[in-house]
Design brief:
alpha/beta; 366 residues; 13 strands; four-stranded parallel sheet; seven-stranded mixed sheet; Rossmann fold
């Protein structure tokens, strides 16, 4: 075990970032380190998500010195992964457990490091793993992270605001080129099962149409709306579509990868082809992809990430293990991890933001 003896007699706290990266992760890490420094905690940062728990030297001791200046940096200084021994990908609503021998090996390394707590920063899949580890005896605290904003137990997660800002900026840019060429422009954004990024950016970016997983669309309604707008003299139509959107009676579009798994993709290209074929109007698609995950976090995500980090350390100090940091009505609270993964937060069809969008003429293709 390559670990300095000086840390073996001190109170140690582990932290890892798991799943997809997003802006704000480093803000959380910095806050955990700074807050822990005030309490006398030593922070052990595990590399590459949960995989770092399986190697005896896959960690870095984080200090206020080596985390200085990271808050405004995107990504995560610890690295992350959604592959490996802890991969539990499954269809929405289904649970897959990490093999028991993997949990035991990770537990032994944490025991050897004498961890007094482990903070897991991640989304729904990561929280599912965190719950399993807690049930196996790990002193775990969860911090919610997802740009999709689809965790039910918190009203907002860091990374979401940055993703929306990125999509809104893209829509701002697409307006001018769409009008110049009299085109239909389609912006495909992330959102597997929840359309929060599409809805928020569509409202902020002046989209004419928003297509989300929660409201299956009709191609006929989409083409009718485009023709109507053209007849009224509109030079262009801007559509923002979540990657998980689908037609009525249709399935989500996906394609295989070199790793043999299915990945969402193709809805933008399908819409582009069908709109052009049905309307005769020149149509282009822009797939925003991982640009939504990169770059510096917004002010809101820096603040939210900082508050989440502080709360996580507080929960460790209070020994409230098995809980996850949660944000509601301006306050940072905590909820049981089991409640956090109980169900996904999707957009109700009668949500006030949808009604507001319809009130200003935005179509949902339904």
């Amino acid at each position: 075990m390559k670990f300095c003896n000086q840390y073996m007699s001190q109170k140690n706290l582990g932290v890892l970032t798991s799943g997809g990266d997003c802006p704000g992760l480093n803000a959380v890490l910095r806050a955990i380190v700074c807050s822990s420094d005030q309490r006398g905690f030593k922070i052990i940062g595990f590399h590459d998500g949960f995989e770092g728990l399986l190697a005896p030297d896959a960690f870095t001791v984080l200090t206020t010195t080596n985390t200085s200046g990271i808050m405004q940096v995107g990504g995560t200084i610890l690295g992350t992964t959604n592959r490996g021994h802890f991969t539990i990908k499954a269809e929405a609503g289904k649970k897959v457990l990490v093999p028991e021998h993997v949990v035991k090996k990770a537990s032994q390394i944490c025991h050897d490091l004498r961890l007094d707590g482990l903070i897991v920063i991640g989304g729904d899949g990561s929280m599912t793993i965190a719950l399993q580890l807690y049930q196996a005896g790990f002193p775990v605290i969860g911090v919610p992270k997802t740009i999709d904003n689809d965790l039910e137990a918190t009203s907002m997660t860091f990374g979401f605001d940055s993703a929306v800002a990125c999509a809104t900026d893209a829509l701002d840019r697409l307006h001018t080129t769409a009008a110049s060429h009299k085109r239909v422009m389609i912006l495909q954004v992330m959102g597997r099962h929840a359309g929060w990024i599409a809805l928020w950016s569509g409202l902020a970016g002046g989209a004419d149409m928003i297509l989300i997983p929660e409201i299956p669309f009709h191609l006929e309604k989409i083409t009718e709306e485009i023709k109507r707008r053209s007849a009224q003299g509109n030079r262009s139509t801007i559509i923002v579509v979540a990657e998980g959107a689908r037609a009525q009676q249709g399935k989500q579009f996906s394609k295989g990868t070199m790793h043999g798994e299915s990945r969402l993709g193709g809805i933008g290209e399908m819409l582009c082809h069908e709109i052009e074929r049905r309307t005769g109007q020149e149509t282009r698609v822009c797939i925003l992809g991982h640009l939504q995950r990169g770059g510096a976090p917004t002010t809101l995500d820096r603040i939210l990430g900082t508050r989440f980090g502080v709360k996580a350390v507080e929960l460790v100090d209070q020994k409230k293990f098995g809980t996850m940091v949660s944000y509601h009505d301006g306050s940072v609270l905590d909820v049981p991890i089991a409640h956090a993964i109980h169900r996904m937060k999707t957009i109700p069809p009668d949500h006030q933001m949808i009604e507001d969008a319809r009130a200003i003429g935005i179509s949902f293709g339904a």
